[in-house]
Amino acid sequence: MNFDFIAYPLGQFLYFIYNTLAFHNYGLAIIIFTAVMKLILLPLTVKQYHSTAKMQEIQPKIQEIQKRYKNDKEKLNQEMMRIYQENKVNPAGGCLPMLLQLPIMLSLYWVIVQPLKFMLSIPVEKIYGKINESKVVIEEGLVQIFNITQGFGAEIKIVNQFDPEKASRILSLDMINKIIDIARGFKFLGMNLSLQATIDTNKLFGPEAGTYLPLLLFPIIGVITTYISSKLSMPQASQNQKTGGQTGGMANSMMYMGPLMTLIFSFQLPAGVVLYWIAGYVFQIFQQLYINNYVVMKKEVARK
What we know:
Layout (H helix, E strand, L loop, with lengths): L3 H16 L6 H32 L1 H10 L4 H14 L8 H19 L1 H4 L5 H5 L1 E2 L5 E3 L2 H4 L8 H7 L3 H4 L5 H13 L1 E2 L2 E2 L8 H4 L4 H4 L4 H17 L3 H6 L3 H21 L4 H33 L1
Antiparallel strand pairs: 1-2, 3-4
């Protein structure tokens, strides 16, 4: 599904932050942008947590009914509906807020990966070229001019190796200056966000060590923040796991799967994308601490 209608205004918002609050620093713009979006989505996050917590509360009852009526599907469904109604639980309640957030979350990712398209509003044809039905390029774009393979992070790679003289064949002077400005803004705390972390020893310990060694911070911090965020967001996982619950086992697996995927993709994608993930997980950690300390505690006090 195409979420460009969401990504374009988000891209313009990110570019506004880049030009104003972030002082033309792409890394700082990503952090501010992520913080604002997390705050906007906080009510949906809290609602999702409430629904998930209710489902966890009635899990023992559900498991008991599933064992009792495992050979009677009709009776099982009736009893399940009774429990949901008595406890005022909507089984889809935890999914609905996530479904509402999903298009925005996907759009946020594409905004970060495609700054030329969504931030600078450069036509797709000028970025990726025009290709006919036979997959033959009939009009060159930036990826052809700079000989870049299309895929994740292609636009960030264009910015990294941008050559104004080559780009002048298809872009206006104003647009060229904007890309040059973005290229400068990719420098964040002495690191180039258009590059990706690597385990290539020639780059890590050769003449380019000063460029690539600092980038290893991104996978390390990414794994740590992903793990902490996953652990905080599943406070009942340990208890469920001890009782042998299927939910606990699944939650426990996800807690380790997330950091592993972050580690793998941190070496596949530009550091700017990984910074977006890290910023998102850091703010998610603070969100979860807020939920645990205020939302959950308030609920426990109300019960007493």
